[in-house]
Amino acid sequence: MKAVGYRQPQPIDKPNSLIDIELPKPKATGRDILVKVNAISVNPVDTKIRTKAMPAEGEYKVMGWDAVGEVVAVGDDTEFYSVGDKVWYAGDLTRPGANAEFHLVDERIVGRKPDSLSNAEAAAIPLTAITAWELLFDRLGFEYQTAPKKTGEQRLLIIGAAGGVGSILVQLAAQRS
Prior knowledge:
Blueprint: E1 2-6, E2 19-22, E3 32-40, H1 44-52, E4 61-62, E5 67-74, E6 86-89, E7 102-106, E8 110-112, H2 119-123, H3 126-139, H4 164-176
Antiparallel strand pairs: 1-2, 1-4, 3-5, 3-7, 5-6, 6-8
């Protein structure tokens, strides 16, 4: 399968900072699903990892963790997904990334891609949305409101929300308050 990776971390302006490579197509086992990747996005974490993370001796490092695609194979222990399902996810930094034709990912960190989003739109969301959700609900304890807001209830001031996480955080807070 085709992929993009590197053998040596270096600045992006170097000729071999990212190279086109051929790798064996992964096989789904256990709880893993094999996804035919339709779209990916690049996050600041990708650029940080690319400048520091060494691949194992003689191997390539494939990055890219925000991905959207279609399930083409499932492991024997898969419970939630079937071949043909359209999915999105933020991947796992301890495994090869999604900058490839096919990506192996644990089904437990995958969600169904919303039909209302294109592949490109959906690929831009997973990591920023997870980060914003965890910040808002897990760290700040913002409460989900099921009834109309009453005077004196929760208030949230978000400053500097022009970036990826901040822009999603504003939308989540507006929908949940």
